[in-house]
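Section 3.1 - Work completed
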Amino acid sequence: MARHSNGFSAWNSPSSISLGAIIPGARNMLTRSVSFLIFSLVAIGVSAGTSTANHRIQGTATSARQETCNLANLVQGFPWEIFKPRTLKEVISITTKAVRPDDSMFLATNQLESKVEVVFTGQSRPIIKARKTFITTWVGMLHADDKNYADLFEREYLYKEGPDEYWLATSTPITKYFDKELKPGDKMDLYLISIGAYRDQADIDCVLLVEEFQKPAAQQARPGDAP
């Protein structure tokens, strides 16, 4: 399926450590980079305006599925079926509850692959610096062999769920299809993962990554996608 961006949801089923958040996603990456510069936790603490004293990773074990993943598996396409129907409010609530009172940030290894129905607005903006730093830190700490994954998220798109609006980091390769397939006001299904959260002064910012999308009731491949 030519449209898909690299991800973690398909092949990662980690457990828990202590620096904390909630991750998801793994998929069609034919070439993996070997090395990655692990970013300092101090950097994310400064960017978020928080103390760096307490960071927590929610899991470090590598899944058997990830260990045995090979090229034959990777070319099968995006694993739509592992994403469970949820609301954005629910995903954010689950992620927020995982953040302890003394955590300045929480990096997740557990997968929270979610399929959420939203309304497309067509609005986008560059990803805010603190979120980008968090994504880079998460990849560097937990997925150093997939350094290019963080590069997929350069912009956030505005989505609506009921009366609520959410700016979500969205994988660049899928956004080129937005103008072709969507117009403002259209409903769409987002396939996203939650990779954790960090404290931004008094607030907790949950970082969700949109890896794929579909129009509701249209789960089959689009014209132009590889079979």
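Second construct:
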Amino acid sequence: MRSTAEDIQAEVQSMPRDCIRWKPAPEVWTVMDNLCHIAEFVPYWTHQVSQAITSPEQEWGRTHHDPDRLAAVAETHLRDLASVLRDMQEGVAKSTAALEQLTPDQLATKAPSRNPRWGLQPASFIVDNLLVTHLRKHLSQIQRNRAQYQQERPLPELFTLPSPPLVPTADGNAFRVRRVFCVGRNYAAHAREMGRDPDREPPFFFTKWAETVVPSGSTIAYPSETGNFHYEGELVVAIGKAGANISPANAYEHVYGYATGLDMTRRDLQLQAREQGRPWDTAKNVAQSSPIGTLHPASGIGHPERGRITLTVDGEVKQNADLIDMIWSVPDVIAFLSRLYRLEQGDLIYTGTPAGVGPVVPGNKIEVAIDGLESLTITIGPPAA
């Protein structure tokens, strides 16, 4: 009994303070209710053991709804936790000391119970069932309360993180960004200008943080650790229906819509990483490096498979191609990517850039235009302080 009481105390002292009086359900006792009842019933049932031994002709015990039992858990929200734990410890210590003095013959003494369910029982019945076992049941209830509390009342957060970006849509809604996937070298001419043979490479992907997404009209800071910051104009696909192992024939069912986009790149860091066989993260996953225009629902514009894609810097055309020039079409890209990851609502896929990529400097204004979509414009600002 003493060890169970110690387990109860350790459990209570390690739980959040507001869990002590938290009520899982109207009919379920709080942790404090359990503690107050323990502090009351341990000395009560110890006294009943003594009575059963010394006065076996008298009835012992009480019913489940006796007033003294119910009073033990009345207004427990007003009670002090430290004093209740102290009362429980003292009660258990006295009870244990008293019970250890009893002989087997004394514990075998039978006396009638006031509760008709129990009838004539030996004093050991009170010890085993109404003290030891009862105490363990309360420990189990306290542990269940704590587990349920942790499920329903999560731990308080240390700080608040910013919400994921919202991309405006042409029909007046907001598309919450979950993840950003990008296709590498998806236009043959661009693959060749980057020194690669497009005919020998299946599509490959890299990822960016959602927070790299910024809206059209933004001024983005020239990033640190680069002297060769490049633009890459792209068609962006927005996923509106989750799925994995999607077939090309069913791919369009998962598309919410399309937008113009930019994959801004620290080109010098990318080339260094490529030469050393290292990932592109520091070159691609850059703050504000994924500008995006207004999203147009496919339900309104269809699925663009051809159409001009152009990029200008301060009005001068730098990239000029057609969507039909993509090596891997949008359905193919979705099919490949969905074999690697389960695509989810909120995912964006930047589908690759045509030839003509090049550097920009602070003050440059970039515009990306794709037939049927709203243009994207950004300005390159000075390095962030």
